[in-house]
Write a structure and sequence with these properties.
By secondary structure, this protein is α/β, with parallel strands linked by helices. The chain has helices at residues 42-61, 64-80, 82-93, 97-115, 117-120, 162-167, 182-193, 208-216, 229-241, 264-276, 296-308, 328-344, 379-382, 398-407, 421-430, 466-472, and strands at residues 4-5, 8-10, 13-15, 22-26, 33-38, 124-130, 133-141, 144-148, 171-175, 201-203, 222-226, 245-249, 254-258, 286-292, 347-350, 369-372, 389-395, 410-411, 413-417, 435-438, 454-455, 458-459, 474-482. A hairpin with a 6-residue loop joins strand 4 (22-26) and strand 5 (33-38). Helix 3 (82-93) crosses helix 4 (97-115). 53% of the residues are buried.
Length: 484
């Protein structure tokens, strides 16, 4: 296929970028260039902000029920092109087609929540706070918001934010990942069909320079970001320096704790999906198994045997269970961590370095990899690898497991596998992580709940999705009134 050059969507129109440079978008299964994403200029960012700013007042005055009808239209359009969206995600990212379908479904679920925003935007009041005086709080939109999106969930993550932002009466700008921008460009085709007023939603392709222009622009009121911890920390600080609201979901090192009483027949498939789904490229991926007491030996044996049977290949093949990494650079980074684990003294039980795919010699494949004899101080136990690498750490009891979890600089997610209600309650009470799973391998909140995170896994006060998103995209105005 001839690579397409993507366009920006500004003020209700598709426009070719004036940027002199573009990022190549690759199909990670075969390394082919399938698109080019322009690295849009600061002037193009300025045009998008101006369009969003000009559209804000009229959109803010549009009744919430009318705004919700646009969300209903968008939901219908997404359902109608569901499979096409999933195939685009797999082609640009590499994740298997069923995972891509799950991503599209999660994006739609956030639109569904936004369809109900009229009922969630009501304020509160109190009569007679003093003699003849009433007081009320009303929720009002703020202005222009922006999303700086990651590559690993290119369709879903911007929809943690966009439907809520515009449903609350704000206008919005998305900068897709330059690695995987195609699915978001397709979604903006659907947003265009949803008949939103020009300027309410805008898309500006680009990379770091484009993101920095959004962060610095005085017309942007707030920014949402998902990505690595170093970048999240920098974006949060930069946004604060420019007086912007910010919610920055960051990196992770998630632990999966398996108690001796756990049902291993049910736990192991959950562990595999958590560790190797999306080739480990998600912030909820389990990357460390903490095997408690007698669970260690039988769990290790089952895990290695099951992981070795996973079929790796092109994600568009319905029989494949794990796809490639998203970029060549990601593959090299993961291979480097495997070498580092060996140098640190961990034992490699399952080696994914030698995986080759017939017919795909240039694909970015690394097979499922499992380390044993991992120690908490090792780099492979502390640093986010973001690939299909799982470490096993034997621990004596739940206290020791919680000590490792709470000693990590990250606090995105942790899961416990057990039949004990007492152990489950203690775990959920003491684990310092934002998303907790009990006999759940991927503790992913549904759209009506916030996508939580603690410590170096989140910077900000209000998370994406659910009621947190509504608070982030509105301000509370308090009105105190007395009539003579």
């Amino acid at each position: 296929m001839t690579p397409q050059t993507l366009r920006n969507y500004i003020d209700g129109r598709w426009t070719a970028s004036e940027a002199a440079e573009a990022a190549e978008v690759h199909n990670p299964a075969n390394g082919e260039v399938i698109a080019r994403a322009p690295l849009s200029t600061a002037a193009e960012v300025g045009a998008a902000v101006a369009a969003a700013g000009a559209a804000f007042q009229e959109w803010r005055e549009t009744p919430p029920l009318v705004r919700a009808r646009a969300m209903f239209r968008l939901k219908g359009l997404m359902e109608g092109r569901f499979e096409e969206l999933a195939r685009v995600i797999t082609t640009e990212h590499g994740k298997i087609i069923d995972e891509a379908r799950g991503e599209v479904r999660r994006a739609i679920e956030n639109v569904e929540v936004a369809c109900g925003l009229p009922a969630l935007l009501m304020g509160y009041n109190a009569e007679d706070i003093a003699v003849g005086i009433d007081e009320e709080a009303v929720l009002q939109p703020v202005g222009v918001y922006a999303c700086i999106a990651p590559f690993n969930f290119p369709a879903m993550v911007p929809f943690w934010f966009l439907p809520y932002a515009i449903g609350c009466g704000n206008t919005y700008i998305v900068k897709p990942s330059e690695v995987c921008p195609m699915s978001q460009n397709l979604l903006f085709e659907l947003l265009d069909e949803a008949d939103l007023p020009p300027g309410v939603v805008n898309l500006v392709n680009g990379a770091r320079g484009t993101a920095e222009a959004l962060l610095a622009h005085p017309g942007v009121a707030g920014v949402s970001f998902v990505g690595s911890t170093p970048v999240a920390r920098q974006i949060y600080a930069t946004a604060a320096a420019h007086g912007k609201r910010a919610q920055c979901q960051a990196g992770a090192k998630n632990c999966l704790v398996v108690m001796p009483d756990a049902d291993l027949a049910r736990a192991v498939p959950n562990l595999l999906t958590s560790a190797f789904g999306t080739a480990g490229q998600r912030c909820l991926a389990g990357s460390l198994v903490l095997a408690v007491g007698g669970a260690y030996e039988p769990l290790k044996e089952r895990l290695v045997a099951a992981a070795a049977r996973l079929k790796v290949g092109d994600g568009l093949d319905e029989s494949v269970q794990m796809g490639p990494l998203a970029t060549r650079q990601a593959r090299e980074r993961v291979l480097g961590y495997i070498e580092r684990g060996l140098a640190e003294g961990a034992r490699l039980l399952l080696d994914g370095r030698g995986v080759t795919m017939p017919g795909y010699p240039d694909g970015y494949f690394v097979g499922p990899t499992i380390f044993d004899q991992v120690r908490p101080e090792m780099a492979i136990a502390r640093e986010e690898i973001f690939g299909p690498v799982l470490g096993i750490i034997p621990v004596a009891n739940l206290d020791e497991a919680l000590e490792i979890i709470n000693g990590s600089p990250y606090g995105n997610a942790a899961s416990l596998f057990t039949d004990s209600g007492r152990a489950a309650r203690e775990f959920r009470y003491r684990a310092r992580c934002g998303n907790i799973g009990i006999n759940i391998g991927i503790a992913a909140p549904i759209a009506t709940f916030p996508f939580a995170g603690m410590k170096n896994s989140f910077f900000g006060d209000l998370h994406g999705q659910g009621r947190d998103a509504i608070q982030f995209f509105t301000d509370r105005k308090v009105v105190i009134s007395r009539w003579f």
